[in-house]
User: Which sequence fits this backbone?
């Protein structure tokens, strides 16, 4: 599948898979990661985003550095408190409409840290945690 910067931006049969990452094209252009259990046949997913790590940030359970993902330029945290529940099909439509661009997939170890952080986060309600894959 083509990555951001290629001429083909729309995919007819796109499928969201574990480890994918996307950049929102609207300010502040955060990176978003869809999370779901691939063993469960469901259109539902949890969408988390990365945000700059600041002292006032309540989400500090999964802090990432540029060494963890090449798209990062500074210390970043996964904002579980801002997560959204939605449908994969709706996200694909938003992607196809140009609201998101696909980035390079996350390294497996980084994706696992994000999932583990979701399970540990006090900022992620239990109703949302049910969408996380079990590791």
Assistant:
């Amino acid at each position: 599948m083509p990555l951001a910067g290629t001429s083909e931006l729309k995919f007819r049969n796109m499928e969201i898979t574990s480890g994918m990452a996307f950049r929102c094209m609207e300010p502040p252009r955060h990176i978003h990661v869809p999370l779901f259990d691939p063993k469960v046949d469901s259109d539902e997913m949890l969408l988390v985003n990365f945000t700059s790590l600041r002292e006032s940030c309540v989400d500090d359970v999964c802090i990432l550095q540029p060494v963890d993902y090449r798209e990062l330029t500074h210390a970043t945290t996964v904002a579980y408190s801002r997560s959204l529940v939605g449908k994969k099909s709706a996200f694909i439509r938003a992607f196809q409409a140009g609201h998101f661009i696909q980035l390079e997939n996350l390294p497996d170890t980084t994706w696992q840290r994000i999932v583990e952080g979701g399970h540990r986060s006090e900022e992620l309600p239990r109703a949302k945690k049910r969408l996380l894959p079990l590791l």
